[in-house]
Write a structure and sequence with these properties.
Layout lengths: L5 H10 L12 H12 L15 H4 L1 H15 L3 H4 L2 H13 L6 H11 L5 H5 L2 H11 L14 H6 L3 H11 L14 H8 L23 E3 L9 E3 L12 E9 L2 H10 L8 E5 L14 H14 L3 E5 L11 E3 L19 E5 L4 E4 L5 H17 L13 H9 L43
Parallel strand pairs: 3-4, 4-5, 5-6
Antiparallel strand pairs: 1-2, 2-6, 3-7, 7-8
């Protein structure tokens, strides 16, 4: 960016991303490919090969036709495969690969499409999610954006099935869930017979790359929905005894932050907590990712040796790293607490209690005063805050008026009431995710 040499810019444009397909790191695409494979809707050995791998032309199509034919003959439907335990398996693997925060959007939406009304109550509660991520599930891959290697390297070391086999062996996954191959998850892994972890790209549960899972859900007075998500695997500093204390810097929209980063980056100071609001499902609308701003903040922090956090009711790219918290809910446009933070407020991230709090809003009088002031601004602007994003298409207008919380997948539903086709109750089995190397952590929820 900014290079004036035509030959250099041409070379970067032509050679920086050779081939075709997804980004190679453990970003959103590869996180969700892995999720879909573990949930049972894609054969595991088809997850990690690169898009231009010859197997995708010479081998996989015939296999897929065979699997699909067998499913039709057996009258196995997607809802037979996407079960409570298969979704739980997929979320646990997402923790173990240090996956993208967007799995906390797409996972609940996939559960809804499969007939489950509420991911938090039907599949996995925030308390259980955090217990597993903190005490039970380690990170098993040294993968970008927080590590060194890519999905290509994971494939060369045996693929995602190596990770699944390792987690099955440690007691972390239910191997009895059905998959699209017609086999259970355990049977599919046994047939594939993947190698043991190499210890460089893929690690064992006993001796993991990182001891705790890569994701954490946060509650507190800024996230009453417990929807706020932190990619713990990508945090590069700023936590002291699992606590960060910072000073709020307010930006009503990402564009203001980008302007500041471009023109006055020196105004950001150590332990600032940047607050970007009105970028949520309804506020933006559409919840655009914030790879540009998070990348610039990461570069700024590395160059200056400081820590600047970012919190938003929007979302991030799977490539984002740093002390960044997304999906804060309720979002600002709906009057969520994030809308009431002011410049200079003290922001506390406490991973010991999985909370993100604004100290000033803990005072009821301060909260009420700010809430009343916010409501007056909204009332004077025909019922919507003036800081929301522009709506210039019918689709964006629908999103503005119908998007549900990130907690439910941030999709569009009539009157913001979550709609589920042919809802069903979750079938709870006796399986409890445990780690045989940490027998002291076997709490049930």
């Amino acid at each position: 960016a900014g290079n004036q040499d035509e030959e250099t810019t041409r070379r970067v444009a032509c050679e920086s991303c050779p081939g075709y397909g997804s980004c190679g790191g453990m970003f959103t695409y590869n996180t969700m490919q892995t999720f879909i494979g573990v949930v049972g809707m894609q054969p595991l050995h088809m997850v990690s090969p690169p898009s231009d791998d010859e197997r995708r032309i010479e081998q996989f199509p015939d296999e897929l036709v065979s699997f699909l034919g067998a499913l039709i003959e057996s009258q196995v439907a997607p809802r037979d495969i996407v079960s409570r335990d298969s979704l739980r398996n997929a979320m646990i693997v997402s923790m173990a690969i240090g996956g993208s925060t967007n799995v906390l959007l797409h996972g609940p939406e996939l559960a809804r499409a499969a007939g489950f009304r509420n991911f938090s109550t039907d599949i996995m509660s925030p308390d259980e999610f955090n217990y597993l991520s903190r005490h039970v599930v380690p990170v098993l891959v040294d993968a970008r954006p927080f590590g060194t290697y890519s999905m290509v390297d994971i494939d060369e070391k045996g693929g995602i099935q190596v990770i699944v086999k390792e987690l099955l062996g440690a007691g972390l996954l239910n191997g009895e869930t059905l998959t699209c191959t017609g086999e259970t998850l355990s049977q599919q892994v046994d047939r594939l017979d993947p190698p043991a972890p190499d210890g460089v790209v893929i690690y064992t549960v006993k001796d993991p790359y990182k001891p705790t899972g890569g994701l954490r859900l946060l509650g507190g007075n800024l996230s009453p929905e417990s929807s706020a998500v932190l990619k713990l695997a990508g945090v590069e500093g700023g936590l002291e005894n699992n606590v960060f204390v910072g000073k709020a810097r307010i930006f009503n929209g990402e564009s203001g932050l980008l302007y500041s980063l471009e023109n006055e980056p020196e105004t950001l100071e150590n332990h600032d907590m940047v607050i970007v609001r009105y970028e949520g499902p309804s506020g933006a609308p559409g919840m655009p990712e914030m790879l540009d701003s998070t990348s610039r903040i990461t570069t700024l922090c590395r160059d200056r040796g400081i820590v600047v956090g970012l919190m938003t009711d929007g979302r991030f790219s799977g490539g984002s790293v740093g002390l960044v918290i997304g999906h804060v809910g309720p979002e600002a446009v709906l009057g969520g607490e994030i809308a009431l933070i002011e410049d200079g407020d003290e922001i506390v991230i406490d991973l010991n209690n999985n909370e993100v709090n604004c100290t000033e809003l803990s005072d009821k009088a301060t909260y009420n005063k700010r809430k009343e002031a916010w409501e007056k601004v909204v009332e004077a602007n025909d019922g919507i805050h003036p800081s929301v994003g522009d709506v210039d298409t019918r689709l964006l207008n629908r999103m503005r008026r119908s998007a549900v919380s990130a907690k439910f997948g941030a999709g569009m539903h009539p009157d913001r009431k979550l709609w589920v086709s042919e809802p069903r109750d979750p079938v709870r089995t006796s399986f409890i995710p445990t780690n045989k190397y940490r027998p002291e952590f076997g709490k049930t929820f």
